[in-house]
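Note to self: keep these together.
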Amino acid sequence: MKRSDFGRRSSYFLAAVALVAAASWLSAQQTPRIRGFSVASSAAETVRERELKAMPTAKAAEADFDVMTAEPHHTGSPYEIKLADYVADQFKQMGIASTKYEYSVLLPWPKERRIEIVAPDQMKLQVEEEKIRGDQWADKPGILPAYNAYSPSGDVTAEIVYVNFGVPADYETLDKLGISVKGKIVLVRYGGSWRGIKPKVAAEHGAIACLIYSDPHEDGYFQGDVYPDGPFRGAGMIQRGSVMDMPRYPGDPSTPGRPSKPGVERLPMDKIETFSPIPVQPMSYRDGVELLKRLKGPTAPESWRGSLPITYRIGPGPAKVHVNLQMDYGQRRLINVVGKITGAVAPDEWVIVGSHRDAWTFGASDSVSGHVSMMAVARAMSAMMKKGWQPRRSVLFISWDGEEQGLLGSTEFVEDLTAELKAKVAVYVNRDAGAGGLNFSSSAVHSLTPFVHELAQSIQPESGGKTLYDGWLERSREQAPAATTPPVGALGSGSDYTAFLDHVGIPSMDMGLNGRGGDGSYHSTYDNPTWFKKYIDPQFTFSVLASQTTGVALLRLADAEVLPFDYESYGRQILEYIAEIEQQATKASADGAKRVNFAGLRAAAEAFTKAGADVRARGESLLGGAGSNPADPFAEINHRLMMAERDLIEPAGLPDRPWYRHVVYAPGLYTGYGVKTIPGVREAVDSGNYTRAAEQATVVIRALQRATKTLWP
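Structure:
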């Protein structure tokens, strides 16, 4: 090569570098700022997100799905244990280090289940789920029979009383009608509340057993064509499910607050508080109608009527039923699998994403669809690492076991590693069922509300010009026409974020993509691959979309220079909750409301809100270039943002249920999954206990003051 040629080529190279630099600068100016990123890093993040979104494929999603749904895999079953090895092997192939965490949990499996009508005539009911002719999945060995986990054994005979959804308000209606369930067996339909509330309230009113049936009004032919002609629940399909009293505490019932490991003290069976107090059995509407049509007594109120072709009556009787349920309680093997990508800048700040692997039967929707999207993100991040990327923070992918029976795997994990999780976890992202449509929804701690909105705005399905946010807002306006933003829900319980948020104080979010018909086979044998591929996600396009959404969320959380928590938004929402409770208290008892320090609550929440605004301004300043620590100028502010949520934990816990310790979020004692915000105060006001409400207001004030000091000392 001549020197003159070298010089010319060098000039061309330098000019090209200058052009690339100029283009990068221009791109940075045109790229919208992403929450938690500087202008320059937003441009780089946008490129990374584009790269990640291109990686998940329908083919890979279906291949993973087919392995995970090939056999029934309830907790403790042979295939569930085999799937733990499969997930660990997948992490190994990706080059991601993995660890198994094993526990031995108390879990019942059903033995005898017999329900017989003994009056006014005799008939043996079909407690087994219907096998649809020609269905290849229904004949698979190892399917867990239809039952309710944590029901006690029992052998009882009594008249039937129909109690609608079986929530407290329904018993108020019965009282007005002069109908008692004492010594009776209640018949209740699914819906209206979480299933575990139904036997709990029935027992409090004297019932001796509870039968829960699926009415076609909720998820059967009233909604659309039933399987196999459509996605909805057929006459013989049964919804399994846990009836553990999870609002008291989730996880292994014999080890509250302690991990279920060898050598750990276990409660004796007669001391466990979270078992259902009376025997419970689920049934199809094929059986439910046989009981309902044998009832006399008053015609049920209009709101109590389902969609069966009968007159809905309440009873009691003359239908009388013999119920014999025998459960096999034993220690079952449970395995969580954790894959970890170590962060480059802040390895001891963890972003965790989790999805449960276990299912009641095949789990095509619940929760293999969620698990597949999580694993797709792991593969995408693995591929990005091979090209030189490494996340700022560590990212952990967790395959949970035992979620269905009572959040067993996640709860035992949190109870096992509490100290390390409190010190290191920045945020927990939950992926349960939800890869079956374009309907995005999310619940989260309210510091993440703006983050979730921006996430939804950044995802545009291939099928149209709307973003996930646009569709979400349209649906919100159908319910509330004046809505300016779609609602990010408050977290109650019902999935694996519960222990992270409610017990330890780790900021959490849950999200999903849903469509029509997705609940039609919920917890039945027919949540299987054929149903899913025919009616829910035939081309696995929604699975790809769920992977893209999950991946962008994790990238932003893992790489943001400043964690994208907005405590000002959090504080404003807390002020709204305080106003709601004060209004409720004043309406119920003006004198009682005066005993509660609502002014102190408002003042504490306002100070918390201001501290949130101040710390956000400080973060913006750092992102603009101010800062003196060349190693990591963001370390201190991120630590404050992580730890402020921990300050909202009350060490003594909530009244009557100390396992739940968060002062802003908890499932309601009688709402099951449904949240009660500022639960200590709100539930005391609900019950008219203003002495307790005043005490709990003081607890909340102290917690808000702690968090305020952490955010902005």
